[in-house]
Design a protein that fits this description.
- The complex is a heterodimer of chains A (333) and B (407).
- Helix content of chain A is 37%, strand content 21%.
- Chain A has 333 residues and is of the alpha/beta class.
- In chain A, the strands form three sheets. In chain A, strands 3-2-4-5-7-6-12 form a seven-stranded mixed beta sheet, with helices on both faces. In chain A, strands 9-11-10-13-14 form a five-stranded mixed beta sheet, with helices on both faces.
- In chain A, helix 3 packs parallel to helix 5 and helix 9 packs across helix 13.
- Chain B is an alpha+beta fold and 407 residues long.
- Chain B folds into three domains: 118 residues, OB fold (Dihydrolipoamide Acetyltransferase, E2P), CATH 2.40.50; 38 residues, E3-binding domain (Dihydrolipoamide Transferase, Irregular); 203 residues, Chloramphenicol acetyltransferase-like domain (Chloramphenicol Acetyltransferase, 2-Layer Sandwich), CATH 3.30.559.
- In chain B, the strands form five sheets. In chain B, strands 9, 12, 15, 16, 17, 18 and 19 form a seven-stranded mixed beta sheet that branches. Chain B has a four-stranded antiparallel beta sheet with strand order 1-8-6-3, with no helix packed on it.
- In chain B, helix 5 crosses helix 6 and helix 5 packs across helix 8.
- The longest helix of chain B is centred in the middle third of the chain and has 18 residues.
- The chains are: A alpha/beta (333), B alpha+beta (407).
- Chains A and B meet through loops of A and helix 1 of B.
Chain lengths: 333, 407
Amino acid sequence: MKQDAARSETRELTYREAVREAIRDALIRDPRVFLMGEDVGRYGGCYAVSKGLLAEFGPERIRDTPLSESGFTGAGIGAAIAGMRPIVELMTVNFSLLALDQILNTAATIRHMSGSQFGVPLVIRMATGAGRQLAAQHSHSLEGWYAHIPGLKVLAPATLEDARGMLWTALEDPDPVLIFEHVMLYNMQGPLAADAAPVDIDKAAVRRVGHDISLVTYGGSLWKTLEAAAELAKAGIDAEVVDLRSLRPLDDATIMASVAKTRRAVIVDEGWRSGSISAEICTRIIEQAFWELDAPLGRVCSEEVPIPYPRHLEQAAIPQAAKIVAAAKSVVG
Amino acid sequence: MAMTDFRMPSLGADMEAGKLVEWLIKPGDRVKHGDIVAVVETQKGAIEIEVFETGEVERVLVDVGTDVPVGTPLARIRTEAEAKAGIAEAAVVAGPVVALPSPPPVTLRPSAPPPVPKEAPPAAITRKRASPAARRLAATRNIDLAVVTGTGPAGAILRKDVELRLAAIAVPAGQKVSKGLDRDAMRVAIAAAMARSKREIPHYYLEHRVDVTASETWLARTNAERSPDTRLLMGAIIMKAVASALRRFPAFNGFFREGRFEPVSAIHVGMAISIRGGGLAAPAIRDTDKLSCDELMIRMRDLVQRMRAGRIRSSEIADATITVSSLGERGVEALYGVIYPPQVALVGFGKIVVRPWVVGEAVVPRSIMTITLSGDHRVSDGHAGALFLAEIEGLMQEPDQLCKIAT
């Protein structure tokens, strides 16, 4: 874990606890904030993120909803328009598709269609990604789709600091923000500063400085990418790792600065390759940094299949450190 | 009706033959001036060719896939009465030039519209692969990629390969030395330095014709016993003479900075080295006065070699406390240099010429060299300059003494 541990006392906690702390902090800071979603109350959240919050804050602010993503997302939008600061939890990105109409046609458009008379200061959290053997209807990475939509901000906290710090900044945003929490990160444990504070939500971060190739990634793939970078270092390839943090807006400046330095890039994205956020990033690099390049761009994405249930097939379908190492080596030549 | 031949056109001055890769007509088709009738593959790629006659295709003379010399009749066309008789000329049709696959059997209606270029299978890439970064660098530095060795995947030329090439041919422009030669940057640097010099430094110029027969004779005698790679050149004597003279004339050795002269006790003579194709730099030989002529010669050879290889350290440019410029071999008798700021003097050496010279009472042929001094009048005066030149003259009369290591 790369955390800015030096500046204050730290404590060990999990990503799950960091998210819970962020929600708890928001509930305490602002009475307009409430959490709603399937099983967030009595059950404590399907990934146990909201465990204990019902007891602390009561059913007014920790609201269990029926299995009706479109309905309660719409309710969240309405509450946001009416002045509340709702946090809507969708169980997985796959199920968010039931609420896609509300997210795209309402949340993302109301400010535009009302001539800015109404905004939707809503935060929607959802789990994304594969690795837990939850099969094809619970394991996909569709955050790239949402990054296509003007009017939304799309975040992918990969570190404890971001899990802890992005939520409040997102709640302060006047427009809808989607936060994607990778399922494989919830149990990740590490030190976090005791006074961890809100963080920006529109800048990418260089998680490892290198000079030979830029590995651009986000979310759950960050750790595999850092592992790959360590492996590459043994082979004498000094990789820089860029954590996008935000998929919309994309921080072009940080990406291009890195690519201009290393002259090579591999994008690591757990989404499918075709029409993906990785494709968008590659295109932007070509548009903005073509003359800086010393090699074709590379990509490591998920295989273009529904994410399989069997563990070995699931693992084979998604980006892994070995694939990233191989892609980077082939680009460096 | 008349018959005319439709011939393999010349699609460029260097084209000797072309391969017919596709017929877009068949016997019996009517063609008119400007119709595209065939595709020919040349070194430049596949090119559609048009006919200049109007008439009917009588006969196709060459099969698809055949390589034929320019001018070979490809087809016979029965032209109409008003059509111009004679050799059909084809012209290159403007438009996308695409490589076409080996032709599928084509059935075309008469007067079919010009065929749309078809999707081609990727042709084997024969040109050199070079990355965008390498291409941009090569373009801006005027490097021909054909002479660059690629070290990237499949031999692709990378930016660093161009940088290596630049370093190999390069001579540095002061601060940018390690990056290789950037002629534009060098020109800019020279322009800035020389403009500043002429703007700020009140130059005075002295000229002194010196009999260097003694040095020349001494060199000939010394070199006679040596292998070519250890021979001394007049340049070593010149450098040494200037360095030694500076010990007695410190007003010419140092820098003028912030309104005042800072003499420098160390003597680092900068040697102006011109670069093929334009530009120059004057890297220093440190402690020139403490070197024997032999050591000096080795250092000068090393400097010139490293200059050509682009491996001059920027400190070597900045270190020089005075500059010596010798255009002697280029055939001018005297040069009046522009002082390289913040230095305060430049000594110029012209070509050695044999001139009638009065020695004693007799006129005899002697080897004469014109030595000039460009001096900074803020620091020194002509009188001191004259003595300085006279000192150099004197030292060159005793090369044996001069070339020993000074103590």
